[in-house]
Design goal:
By secondary structure, the chain is mostly helical. It is built from 17 helices and 7 strands. The strands form 2 sheets. It has a 5-stranded antiparallel β-sheet with strand order 4-6-7-3-5. Strands 1-2 form a two-stranded antiparallel sheet.
Length: 387
């Protein structure tokens, strides 16, 4: 999981003397220790935590090279969702039925959501990562790309270590998450739970502990029980495409008036929803309800979260989506060139990385409106040529 929670939520004071990113490694460790001591971590625990600390260049390579997210939704989802995974999800739902029943009753988080992320994060606990997570967190906290995220996580890991809940040689993901649903240290501090009743929170070895912890996290973020999160819909060709996008919710009843209809059943007309077209107006279409926005705090990639959200509906009985016949996707290099052109026109697209992220989608749609093209936020060769 990749939640970005406020530092105060985990019971840690905001640092009063955060070091500039990069710089001398020994000085970084000394200042991190000083911050930890200021939050109540005993000096001997901080020393043990930092005793084997080293920078891990392979972590930075992973952080810079997340090329998998350049894939479009259809390509990505077909890569991650197989019939074998659907069948395994059904089998594991039965094996852990009591835990899922408890979660659904007490927290209102449906089993489909947890099964989907359990599958994608670690292949149902089978592939939890083999990075030294302590060194991964310290490396990313020292690095200049996202120190505001990873420095508090490193401090939280030190706090967990002082509580006897974090082994310094623990193995996990390159970004510092551990366990079957991949939780960061601050998440573990706030939401780590004993799901199997043995008195221990074991997120790596106990599926029930991991599932309950993940569910408590979603509930803590405001999951709304008995409400949908994502629903496949059909969309009329006459729709004003500029109304679409995750950042433009309106009441589902308004979407119904505009001709948007569920592929199965009816839409939740009493809820707000955003119309999401991951491959533009000719591809799949989904209504994203308020619960969907919480899932984006699990992972910032819309393609990843949309795939997980869809897989959760599939686990709960939804059909395979209609892929449609979308316009061809741009290559990674073409996307980078498009992002450069958008940036030159004053749009904030974030990093020039060839990934169709949220800010790039907003910029694409704005330029489509300006140029009189169908404003469905899907970058095409026609848009690239026009720019």
């Amino acid at each position: 999981m990749r939640f970005v929670l406020p530092l105060v939520a985990a019971g840690l004071a905001a640092p009063a003397f955060a070091q500039d990113c990069g710089g001398d490694w020994s000085l970084f460790l000394d200042e991190l220790k000083a911050e930890a001591l200021a939050t109540g971590v005993p000096a001997e625990d901080a020393d043990r935590f930092l005793s084997g600390a080293r920078q891990d260049p392979s972590v930075l390579e992973q952080d810079r090279g997340q090329g998998i997210f350049q894939a479009d939704f259809v390509t990505f989802s077909r890569r991650l969702i197989s019939q074998d995974r659907v069948d395994r999800a059904a089998r594991l739902a039965g094996e852990h039925d009591a835990t899922f029943d408890r979660i659904e009753t007490d927290l209102g988080v449906p089993r489909g959501i947890l099964l989907a992320f359990w599958a994608f994060e670690t292949d149902f606990g089978q592939v939890q990562g083999d990075f030294d997570t302590t060194n991964a967190l310290l490396t990313l906290a020292h690095d200049c790309r996202r120190p505001e995220l990873f420095r508090p996580e490193a401090l939280a890991a030190m706090r967990l270590h002082a509580q006897g809940r974090w082994d310094t040689d623990v193995r996990g993901a390159w970004a510092g998450e551990i366990g079957q649903v991949q939780m960061l240290p601050r998440d573990i501090l706030e939401f780590g739970s004993d799901g199997d009743g043995d008195g221990i929170v074991d997120l790596k070895g106990s599926s029930d502990d991991a599932l309950l912890s993940g569910a408590r996290m979603l509930a803590g973020l405001g999951w709304r029980p008995d409400e949908p999160w994502l629903q496949e819909v059909t969309v009329p060709d006459s729709l004003d495409w500029s109304l679409t996008g995750l950042e433009k919710p309106r009441s589902a009843s308004e979407w119904a008036t505009l001709g948007v209809a569920a592929r199965e059943g009816g839409i939740a007309t009493d809820l707000p929803a955003a119309l999401v077209l991951p491959l533009g107006r000719k591809g799949p279409a989904f209504l994203a309800y308020p619960n969907f926005s919480l899932l984006t705090e699990w992972n910032q990639s819309l393609t990843y979260v949309l795939t997980a959200g869809y897989f959760a509906t599939r686990i709960m009985g939804a059909p395979v989506y209609d892929a449609g016949e979308p316009d061809p996707a741009l290559s990674g290099e073409e996307m980078k060139f498009l992002q450069q052109r958008l940036q030159a026109r004053g749009h904030d697209v974030g990093e020039i990385d060839g990934i169709l992220g949220a800010r790039t989608r907003v910029a694409v749609q704005a330029e489509q409106v300006r140029l009189g093209l169908p404003a469905d936020a899907w970058p095409t060769q026609a848009l690239l040529d026009a720019l």
